[in-house]
Amino acid sequence: MATRTDLDGRPIKPMTICMIGAGGFIGSHLCEKLMSETPHKVLALDVYNDKIKHLLEPDSLPWAGRIQFHRLNIKHDSRLEGLIKMADLTINLAAICTPADYNTRPLDTIYSNFIDALPVVKYCSENNKRLIHFSTCEVYGKTIGSFLPKDSPLRQDPAYYVLNEDTSPCIFGSIEKQRWSYACAKQLIERLIYAEGAENGLEFTIVRPFNWIGPRMDFIPGIDGPSEGVPRVLACFSNNLLRREPLKLVDGGESQRTFIYIKDAIEAVLLMIENPDRANGHIFNVGNPNNEVTVRQLAEMMTKVYAKVSGETVLESPTVDVSSKEFYGEGYDDSDKRIPDMTIINKQLGWNPKTSLWDLLESTLTYQHRTYAEAIKKSIAKPSAS
Predict the structure, then answer these.
(1) Which is catalytic among the residues 102, 140, 161, 182?
(2) What is the pTM of this model?
(3) Tens of pLDDT along 339-348?
């Protein structure tokens, strides 16, 4: 492998990375990138390894020996500090991050995203280890624009809805709206990391993902994702399409989102890993403001893309409206628009996303259609217990 250089032309030294949550959607893509394109070693920590099994075996793989899987739960495992000490950098991806859980499991959500992350931050700080912590675009909450009258022309002014890491406020709903338990826990751990940097010199980078999409994203309950609960919007819509059911639009599908292809996003993370001088002390939005749609428009586009990749006809009634109370339960609330300001990441790391919404949906739905077909075949092939 040719010597890699950072953005300032300096050679990049091979490093050991402790990756917490390596077996998930983002972790699996990041591990792939690190194994195929860099000389770095990964200590992969997670409860499951299904999504990275292809990287772990057989021993003849070109990166054999550079990735080690450690099956552990960071809640209660005494090995955690030792593994962080062995590494040059810790990346924390562990989280409960499914909207349906914020209402129904608010305690688990708060513990997972704040309490369980505390030892990770503490061990990095005490042992002078660099930390890349994954937060969320949810920390911004609602936009200032959402509080303006519906017909106000100011709603169209980017100053009222484009989200900037250093200047945008974090506006959450009332305490009874438990949907904000996730965002609030994530914001508090961000503040703690920032304080560790200010008071104790912790070297940190915080990542705020804006809807990262792609293959291996949880989508088939019990097969490629959790067996219960409601997944995120794209996974929900994928499930409906695969099962030939109408796509459920919560409260009319008027909320707006931006979506980014996982491979584009991972490029940004690799730049953070290999350019600590440019990334330390920064919070980075990682999203694609060019891929902005309402949830209703997303449903319409996914219906067309799925018809193309599957060859199946579109349902006569492809969508159905449901209320948020009916879909998520009591205490749900939502953010109206989430458009990332990309100024800081562009200035520090020179990074811009590339993949269009149509292309990322086509890649994701092609993968999901194939995986679903294989899962159905397996379940049919299994002999039933008599």
Answers:
(1) 182
(2) 0.91
(3) 999 999 999 9
